Amino acid sequence: VRRSGTWGPRVLDRVYGAFGRVVCSSSTSCFLLYSDQVRRWTGSSWGEPRFLGRDLGGDIAVDCTSASFCLAVGDGGRTVTWNGTRWSARGTAPLAVLGDVSMDCTSASFCMVSSNGVTSTWTGAGWRPPVTVQGFIAAVGCQSAIRCFGTTSGGLFVWDGTQWAQTSMAVGDD
Q: Is 61 exposed, middle or buried (0-12, 13-18, 19+ CB in 10 A)?
C-alpha cells in the first residue's frame, strides 16, 4: 500500500486470502469487495467483513470518486453504491458483467462500465441504455461525462457522451 509517498506493508495479506476488487478514494478510505462482503481500510487496519447489501457474485467492477461515493457492479449487472456511511442496492445495470470488466467514474453522476463488448453509463439516478461497441473494449478511462477513451484489439475509441467512435490511433503490437 502506498502511503505518504512511500510503500508500506502488504496489508492485503491480512484479509484472509479473499479475492475481490480493491478501490481507494484516499489514504484512509479503501474498500475490498468480494461477493456479498465488503471490508473497509481506515488507514491503519481492515475492518471486519460487512454485508454489502446484495450478492455481486465473482466478477466485480468498482470505482470511488470520493469518500462519499463509490459504485460497484457485479455479475448480471447487480449494482450497489456507497454514500459515505453505508452500501445500498441500486438496481441492475443493463449489461452482463462477466469476466473482463472495466469501470471509471468521474463523479457521483457519471460512471462508464464496459463488459463483453457493451458499455453503459451511470447517471447518479440509474443506468442509461447499453451501447454496443465494434470490438471488445478491454479498458475505459474517463475525463468527464462527454470524454472517455476505450481500448480494443483494433484501436482506441472515444466517447462523446452518446456514442463511441474509433480514432486513427492503433493500440497493441505493431
A: buried
Secondary structure letter of residue 127 according to DSSP: B
Among 121, 123, 151, residue whose Cα is nearest residue 139? 151
How many C-beta neighbours within 10 Å does residue 81 have?
19
Query: For residues 121 and 31, what is the distance between their CA atoms, to the nearest angstrom?
Result: 22
CA distances from 130 to 42, 75, 110, 123, 147 (A): 35, 16, 14, 13, 17
Query: What number is the average pLDDT over the span 30-49?
Result: 88
Query: Would you list the DSSP string of 50-69?
Result: EE-SS---S--EEEEEETTE
Q: Judge whether residue 25 has pLDDT over 80.
A: yes
Closest CA to 38 of 82, 102, 6, 76: 82
DSSP state of 147: E
How far is Cα 92 from Cα 77, in angstroms, rounded to an integer? 5
CA dist 37 → 3, 25, 56, 111, 130 (Å): 25, 19, 9, 22, 27
Q: For residue range 67-110, list pLDDT tens digits in order.
A: 899 999 988 888 999 999 999 988 899 887 766 788 999 999 99
